[in-house]
Amino acid sequence: MGGAVTRGLAFAALFAIVLVASCDGAIAVMSP
Amino acid sequence: MSGARRYGGAHSPGAARPSSGAGWSARAIRAPSIRAILLHAAPTPLLLGVLWSLATADAPRMLALGATWIALTLGAHLTRTGLAAARAYDEHATARPPAFPRKLSGAALTGLGVGAAVTLGGAAPMSAGLFGAVAAGLHVLSFGVDPMRAKGVNGLEGAALDAAITRIETARALIGDMTRAAAGFGDRALEARVARLAAAAEEVVARIERDPRELRRARRFLSVYRP
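The joint structure predicted for all components is written out below.
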């Protein structure tokens, strides 16, 4: 149970990092 | 006497049914994990950046964003296939480890992709490396590492373990071939008989898997009962 919660939280953090990094890279290209 | 065959399918009354969950050939195909699908979707904003660079004729940035998107997508793909390989490894009592460590490669590519995306966003290399390392670490924490060792056959190691696993895998493949070949004839009575035979053969393989010393008894059984 504890392991599943840890894996879930780790995935949520990973998803957020990948999404924010992708947005960051894309916005930097689009901004003048 | 007509040559007509009574119509019937797999779910008709009296049709051969796979034994409940026991048969290798009867195992359900599972949907890919939601987490793996989300990991595929997360780098999508990079594609918008690629389109923008294309529209503004900024080739270097377009290539950099495209390469980053490919690294992250390939990482997600390797993670998804690595999860499927790990599930197949877990389902069998005797199994070889996957030939290629897909989940770990997925973690490395995800870390690399996040580092590259952060660098494109204007961060310092040190900061990008840190973000990449954190992403790779979270990937390992979330999805785990690939199975590394062959498992399951007591008292066997190295080449003997490899040979035992090869025999078991060959037997399972032959049982699957036999079941599929029988289904091709469209003869329900034959299908039912072959399904019973396949269930018995799978039981023999499962017993050998649990204890390879049963292999000798199985050979004796075959030499006595095989027509």
